[in-house]
Amino acid sequence: MNNQHNDSIRCIAYNPVTHLLVSCSSSDFGLWKPEKKSVSKHKTNSKITCCGWTDDGQYLAVGMMNGVMSISNKNGEEKVKIELPGGALSPVWSIAWNPSKYEPNATSVAWNTQCEDMLCFSGNRYLNIKTSNFPVHQQKLQGFVVGYNGSKIFCLHVYAMSAVEVPQSAPMYQYLERKMYKEAYQIACLGVTDSDWRELAMEALEGLDFETAKNAFIRIHDLLYLELINSIEERKKRGETNNELFLADVSAYQGKFHKAAKLYKKTCNDPQALNLYTDLRMLGYSQDFLGSGDPKDTKMLITKQADWAQNMNEPKAAAEMYLSAGEHMKAIEIIGDNGWVDMLIDQARKLDKAEREPLSKCAFFFKKLQHHGYAAETYMKMGYLKSLVLLHVETNHWDEAFEILEKHPQFKDDVYVPYAQWLAENDHFEEAQKAFHRAGRQGEAVKVLEQLTHNTVVESRFNDAPYYYWMLSMQCLDIARENEEKKDEMLKKFHKFQHLAELYHVYHSIQRYTDEPFSSHLQETLFNISRFLLHNLTKDIPLGISSVYTLYALAKQSKALGAYKLARHAYEKLQGQWIPARFQESLELGSLTARSKPFIDSEELVPMCYRCSTNNPLLNDQGNVCINCRQPFIFSASSYESQTLRLDESVDDTEDDPFTAKLSFEQGGSDFVPVVVNKSVLWSMSRRDVLIKRWPKPLQWQYYRSLLPDVSITTCPSCFQMFHSEDYELLVLQHNCCPYCHRPIDESN
Known about the structure:
The protein is an alpha+beta fold.
């Protein structure tokens, strides 16, 4: 039979099953069927370069110059058309069917543009995905596949195009089954879940493909395994090549502890297996790796067991295990923390005296648990005499401390100084002074009391601060009397501390007025106290004393008593300072009401000088002195009213009665000139009118004359502060001592 083509024949191929011949030319291909004695021709758009039948003879594939592969059935009807990406630049020169597998039901085929080993084809309403030479994965689909990119398959159904997202898990696991980790990673990159990534990472790690495992773990941000891989890579760089040891580490990380232990043992790393089981508290398995009973391993295992017991809140078992392992310090820590005195005593007595550290720890806990006798026994065992002395000092067992001091005088400073401090803290200042003298620490006596005094101020204990400052001043006076070299320095401190004592004594009343809801003081008393304190705050303000509180009290009492000019001045001063929120509303209201009052002060409140009879302003820039004669005002230590006049003794006996004459004072003087009388005049005065401050040396006695004979005045024989007698008696009854210096009332003069 003649089979004529218009162009030259390019290739021919016999059907392997039937007597069917295909001949291909540049523009068509023809099918020769002997039984029909005819040739059917089918046109093509490009030159045919190659052709081939499937093994069952059902399908014919032809390749063309334009990069197109056409698959037709044995009747020549085109079923699938495959176009290569390059088009005419990628001609198909040869074509061959896979001899082992072909898909007779395929109607359309598409290769994955991101993975050359993957293709998909559709047919019989199924989508088939094939990877390499693995079995086909199927899922239902309507239409024809026209493209395959990554994890997306593009399908045409009638006139609608759709993109189908297909998981890549199945082909990834197919590669993993054959331990083809890098290929599985390439598939995973097309799109899989986090759990798939983890499975890939674990499989690659177990297969010792660390690069693939690392990339997979990076995808899921697993820092723990990344650290493991980094550690293994560093070890490989250092020359380690034992893969079984690496696999043991991997198994340990995965929780496959028995497998890890076997691999450690196989690689002669028994200590690592032992550490693994001991860290996991699997004691039964730990025993299998103790080797030949190495004491170090045994001790380590017992110590680990003790650690577990301690973490499991079984301290007694932990302490006993530590003791059996020879870890005395850890055992003593547990025993001491739990207060098991009997065990602590037993351990302290069993320890050798050369074991200083655990014995010292025992002594520490004995002290902490208030068992000072056992602590002393332990120090005696070690021969620590100084620690023993310090123990008696810390526990205030002074008799025992002085008993040791008699035999060992080198500890004088260690005993007398803290003893003196203890006495001072317990208000036994005279005994403290003697103790400091015995220690030769006169300066320290003052320093300790200065610190105590400072603490009372910082803690706002203004009831105690004046007492401490007064005691401090008297100690300075004692030192000045006994030490000529320090006389001037100590006298200067004496006057400073006396002044501070009086300021804090006054400020205590101000503080109680501002902080407490009720005040026991009269308005006049608070008024006088505020004025007195404000006159003494013109320069440096002592620590703890608030000028705001002082001005607040002065403003309130001035307005209440009719001193409106002074009240307005105080409110104006407060406007330039920071005011606590709790005073803000009261101050604003008070300032407003004060401005509505006349700008004058009540004449009843104006202080008069008892020497020159000059009326003084309520607020004096020169302080608590007369503006005319400069006579200092002498105040009652309770009400702070001016009450006496200071005298100086003269040796001149020529005048019979110079006192009245001396009271006269020429107006306008700039310097204070005290009243000076001779002995005869002094003797002629009423004993009741003359008040004497009998200061110890090196100070001189001071004489004062009461100019209000109807007012009874009492002077404390200890601190020499002056009080109205009625006030003093009431305060003594309330406190059972002098309110200023705390002198008990039953104490002799």
